[in-house]
Amino acid sequence: MIPKIIEITSEETLNIRHRTMWPNKPINYVKLENDDQGRHFGLFIDGKMVSVISLFVKNKAAQFRKFATLTDYQGKGYGTMLLNRIINIAEDEKLHKIWCNARTDKSDYYAKFGMILTKNRFVKGKIEYVVMKKVLN
Ligand SMILES: CC(C)(COP(=O)(O)OP(=O)(O)OC[C@H]1O[C@@H](n2cnc3c(N)ncnc32)[C@H](O)[C@@H]1OP(=O)(O)O)[C@@H](O)C(=O)NCCC(=O)NCCS
Questions:
Q1: Ligand 1 centroid vs 43 CA: distance in angstroms?
Q2: Is the CB of 51 under 6 A from ligand 1?
Q3: Ligand 1 mean position to 70 CA, how many Å?
Q4: Predicted pLDDT at 97
Q5: What own/partner pairs with CB < 8 Å and gap ≥ 24 does 112-118 have?
Q6: Which of 9, 55, 62, 84 could make an SS bond with 90 (beta carbons 3.0 to 4.6 A apart)?
């Protein structure tokens, strides 16, 4: 029952991305144009993948995108494990910062990881976003 985090392909993220984030859109909507340039991670419980996150590094900054935990598995700390892993990877690779386009209603959650709000806000698909970042040492 110990959760395991494994590097996966972008194709393997699609089902959880789709079901959790944009179930009413076609599956292509959750594909990213630069998915092949990212690193993708899945958290597995008893061999079942329940949470995914994707990491994109550019100019010593890491952006994480398409972070999602299957609805039935949310609120159990799995997302926290995955996000902490990503932050550790960024620190190990001596990147300068980690950032994301956060759904505004998730900003308190990201604040728990030391991420701070920036002034950049936007709306996409009727959802409000704010750019959040964490400067790394
Ligand atoms: C955001 C998301 C990925 C978080 O994944 P998760 O697996 O539910 O994350 P966690 O269980 O670690 O944390 C969720 C909550 O459970 C709480 N929690 C419960 N048990 C916990 C535990 N054992 N350890 C840590 N946190 C725990 C956390 O404190 C957190 O509370 P908060 O939302 O009030 O801050 C998930 O909610 C999701 O997929 N949402 C829909 C898609 C989405 O919005 N993605 C993010 C776009 S920015």
A1: 13
A2: yes
A3: 10
A4: 97
A5: 112/80, 113/83, 113/84, 113/87
A6: 62
CATH class of 4-135: alpha beta
CA distance 24 to 82: 25
The answer for residues whose C-beta is within 8 angstroms of residue 88's C-beta and 6 or more apart is none
* Residue 109 Cβ contacting ligand 1 at under 6 Å: yes
103-117 residue pLDDT tens: 999 999 999 999 999
Query: Of how many residues is the chain composed?
Result: 137
Round the average pLDDT of the chain to a whole number and report it.
Answer: 96
In the reported structure, the alpha carbon of residue 72 is separated from the centroid of ligand 1 by a whole-number distance in angstroms of 11
CA dihedral 63, 66, 72, 78 (to 10 degrees): -20
Residue 1 has pLDDT above 90, yes or no: no
